[in-house]
């Protein structure tokens, strides 16, 4: 089965890649559309300070996407070249995975890195019992050749690499192949190349909501291994 989506209003993306999509087998067309803005073709940078002031959205199974994304896949495709998450709080107001609170009161920031079958997450968490959707907050990243440090509002900044020595990749349990590739770079590889800013909103997915999640006592309405046709 094939389903075609054609956009007939004026498209601001790269035509036809970003203006047409075709669903084939498990590459489905998402049932929900949302806006995304990025600086891919206008601005990218390596190292510096990034601060975003935002009020994160609320709503079941939605995820704000405040990303830094690699301009070029220098270390390989997918997450092999890494993605930096500036801030994320799931939209659900009453979501748990076992005893872990994954609701809108839990804020996460950090990095995702690795090949498609071995993506690892290193993150920092903050808690706001009132939720991160009530007020605007300042989400900050300080990115240097030696470390990545995250903070929110007046909370003290927290670094991903502790101590003066060590590689970011060595603090995670990777197989040998991606680690060897990143050894060509600095201690923060793959986060030692130019990245651009991407802001958007996603729904569902296979990474942010564990299959055992309970939303207000109700089980997650899909599983990550569900058929996509």
UniProtKB/TrEMBL annotation:
Protein name in the entry: GH16 domain-containing protein
Signal peptide: none
Pfam families found in the cross-reference section: Glyco_hydro_16
Transmembrane segments: none
InterPro entries noted in UniProt: Beta-glucanase-like, ConA-like_dom_sf, Glycosyl_Hydrlase_16
Ranges of residues in domain GH16: 2-229
């Amino acid at each position: 089965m094939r389903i075609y989506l054609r956009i007939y209003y004026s498209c601001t993306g790269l035509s036809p890649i970003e203006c047409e999509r075709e669903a084939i087998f498990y590459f489905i067309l998402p049932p929900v559309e949302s806006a995304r803005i990025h600086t891919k073709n206008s601005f990218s940078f390596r190292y510096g300070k990034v601060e975003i002031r935002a009020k994160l959205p609320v709503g079941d199974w939605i995820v704000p996407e405040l990303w830094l994304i690699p301009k070029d896949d220098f270390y390989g495709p997918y997450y092999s070249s890494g993605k930096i998450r500036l801030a994320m709080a799931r939209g659900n107001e009453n979501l748990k995975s076992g005893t872990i609170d994954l609701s809108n009161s839990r804020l996460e920031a950090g990095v995702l890195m690795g090949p498609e079958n071995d993506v690892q997450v290193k993150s920092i968490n903050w808690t706001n019992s009132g939720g991160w959707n009530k007020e605007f907050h300042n989400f900050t990243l300080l990115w240097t050749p030696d470390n990545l440090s995250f903070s929110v509002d007046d909370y003290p900044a927290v670094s991903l690499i502790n101590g003066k020595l060590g590689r970011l990749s060595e603090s995670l349990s990777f197989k040998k192949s991606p680690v060897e590739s990143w050894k060509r770079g600095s201690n923060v590889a793959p986060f030692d190349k130019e990245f651009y800013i991407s802001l958007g909103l996603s729904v569902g997915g296979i990474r942010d909501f564990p299959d055992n999640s309970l939303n207000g006592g109700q089980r997650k309405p899909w599983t990550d291994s569900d058929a996509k046709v």
